[in-house]
Design brief:
16 strands; eight-stranded mixed beta sheet; alpha+beta; binds 2-oxoglutaric acid
């Protein structure tokens, strides 16, 4: 029930930490991420807090794009996002800019874990707000270790060892031009992942299905084994039930952006949802995503 402990050997600094809920998320005070990019002790402390709280929030980060990228790359190599290209002057930095011309039905509004339609989804990301709408445009994060922990025991038993396929087509990809969608599917081949993954740094068990998950690949029931059927009765309901766990408010934190607010999240143990309730206003975000491991 207790969050992962802060690892020993890390120097205490001037960071003040205020948890935002009992489950997920903390706001950090007294930190500049430009300094943290250069200071090993400060960086280690932030990394440990990230493992503990899963998403960290900071305000008033009037940092340059170079500092944003420098801080994020302390967490690991930055990825070139395969769908949204990087800023040419700052490889690894993606602009997520929305305005009157962005079709509100074509993006956001899905609880997801980034990039599970790839073999190695990102480890995490650092997102900075450049311009926020007057109202709306919050982002929600969900603690998927807590979602796993609170599953009934019989469900935990049922899903142990289960694997599922993930596809970009299941959500955001569905509104892409057909040719582009097929290109991405051919490149990334709709990988399968464990339904319960283990966090490589904290050993926590994490419920690892989301809006990109299409179906189980090894769900067998006595019925479909006995009658040699491919489909397994009840599989769709079980998957829908597991996916719906991310919508439980007790597992969530909701963040109100201001210009220069930053969120740092662990993509292995969380999902997120950018709330599309501000169109046609402008919302500008910049994100650096960090390369991740193959889930196990
Ligand atoms: C992402 O970066 O994966 C998002 O879903 C965007 C989050 C946001 O703009 O708040």
């Amino acid at each position: 029930d207790t969050p992962a402990p802060v690892r020993p050997g890390v120097l205490r600094t001037s960071i003040r930490v205020e948890p935002l809920t009992c489950t997920i998320g903390a706001e950090l005070f007294g930190v500049n991420l430009g300094d943290a990019a250069r200071d090993d002790d400060l960086f280690s402390e932030i990394k440990n807090l990230l493992l503990q709280y899963k998403v960290l929030f900071l305000r008033n980060q009037d940092i340059t794009r170079a500092e944003h990228v420098a801080f994020a790359s302390r967490l690991g190599p930055l990825e070139d996002h395969p769908v949204v290209g990087s800023d040419p002057d700052h490889p690894g930095l993606v602009r997520i800019y929305k305005d009157l011309n962005s079709n509100p039905e074509h993006y956001e509004n899905a609880l997801h874990c980034d990039g599970t339609w790839r073999e190695c989804p990102p480890m995490g990301a650092v997102l900075r707000c450049v311009e926020t709408p007057e109202v709306g445009g919050d982002t929600i994060w969900v603690n998927m270790a807590e979602a796993y922990r609170r599953l009934p025991d019989h469900i935990k038993t049922q899903i142990a060892g289960l694997r599922a396929r993930h596809s970009i087509e299941a959500t955001f990809g569905a509104v892409m031009p057909m040719e582009r969608r097929h290109q991405l599917k051919a490149q990334f081949k709709d990988p399968e992942h464990p339904v319960v993954r283990t966090h490589p740094e904290t050993d926590e068990k994490i419920l690892f299905v989301n809006a990109f998950t299409t179906h189980f690949v090894n769900y067998h029931t006595p019925e479909n084994v006995r009658f040699g059927q491919d489909y397994a009765p009840g599989a769709g309901n079980l998957l829908a039930y597991l996916i719906s766990q991310a919508a439980v408010p007790e597992y969530q934190v909701r963040w109100r952006w201001q210009k220069n607010s930053v969120a740092i999240w662990d993509n292995r143990s969380t999902q997120h949802y950018a709330v599309q309730d501000y169109w046609p206003a402008v919302r500008k975000m910049e994100r650096a995503g960090i390369v991740g491991d193959r889930p196990f």
